[in-house]
Specification:
8 strands, 12 helices, 2 domains, single chain
Length: 311
């Protein structure tokens, strides 16, 4: 697991040792409750689903929009049946090929490392996870596996394949979706927006609540400043490729306190809102090519006088 992680990312990891326990779901739940929203991705060992039957239900419960925790698992394509029965946006499952060196490679670790190493910015925009290169991972061969590929795609199970169709060497990820079918890059973009909006708006409230020439006050000017910071943050997300487009609205001070009489006294304001579109990549492409043979006889006549090239 460590070899596949560091082959695909230079970022460090935390290792949680649970020993031979069969209560992985309960232990992991207790750990995450003790460290809320501290971890974004969790890689689980191969075969873990056979150890704790409660794990699929626990992982399915992590699928709310605000949880922002993703579990990465791998094994055979048949091992995923208990997970696909509770398809969740919180779970990635990758099917390893039977020829993979299981002592040297771990598909879930490689994919998680790629997912968490994005570091999006204006010169390093967020890229889709589908067809992402994977280092040190054995691909499924194309020959004879067409039906298996179709079945895995239908079940939102990912797998490593070759990049030969594009004339490129190496292993790439098919299909880069979570088990509910949502593209991984879309949720990364949505989470980026939620995390950074909370960070930047909280920063503005804290920093500008200190004595100075321009303290933040609950009035129209204060709402305008909060809205401006939100727009600046979303614009940064758009430049980083985490957001394709966005719209931002804010209820005016007069309208909000009129509609919510107790809000001003309690210092609460929930009148700012945004709608964002997140990025996704191409999964398939159909190119229609029409061939015109109307000049075939002319071409053949000209070619008959040329010497053969063997092509």
């Amino acid at each position: 697991m460590a070899a596949s992680w560091f082959a695909n990312s230079t970022a460090g990891v935390w290792v949680l040792e649970l020993g031979t326990t069969k209560t992985i779901a309960d232990d992991l739940k207790a750990f995450l409750e003790k460290h809320p929203q501290s971890f974004y991705g969790v890689v689980l060992p191969r075969g873990v689903l056979a150890i704790d039957p409660n794990l699929p239900a626990f992982l399915a419960n992590q699928g709310s929009n605000n949880t922002r925790l993703y579990a990465f698992l791998c094994g055979t394509k048949d091992d995923a049946k208990t997970l696909t029965a509770n398809s969740s946006k919180a779970v990635f499952y990758g099917a390893e090929h039977s020829t993979a060196n299981l002592t040297q490679e771990h598909l879930a670790s490689a994919v998680c490392a790629q997912f968490l190493s994005a570091r999006p910015g204006p010169v390093n925009r967020l890229a889709p996870m589908n067809f992402r290169f994977l280092t040190g991972i054995t691909p499924w061969p194309e020959a004879g596996n067409g039906p298996a590929f179709a079945a895995m795609k239908e079940a939102n199970i990912s797998f490593p394949g070759t990049a030969r169709e594009g004339g490129v060497s190496g292993t790439i990820l098919f299909w880069g979706n979570f088990l509910n079918g949502d593209p991984m890059s879309e949720w990364y973009g949505a989470d980026w927006a939620a995390i950074n909006l909370e960070l930047q708006l909280a920063n503005l409230i804290i920093e500008d609540s200190q004595p100075g020439i321009r303290p933040l006050i609950y009035d129209q000017n204060g709402i305008d400043r909060l809205t401006a910071r939100a727009e600046q943050t979303l614009g940064g997300g758009e430049a980083a490729g985490c957001i394709v487009s966005y719209s931002l609205t804010a209820t005016s001070f007069a309208a909000y306190v009129s509609q919510n009489p107790s809000a001003y006294q309690s210092g609460d304001y929930s009148g700012v809102a945004a709608t964002i579109a997140t990025p996704r990549g191409f999964l398939s492409l159909t190119f229609n090519l029409a061939v015109d043979f109307s000049g075939q006889s002319v071409v053949a006549a000209v070619s008959s006088t040329a010497s053969s090239t063997g092509a």
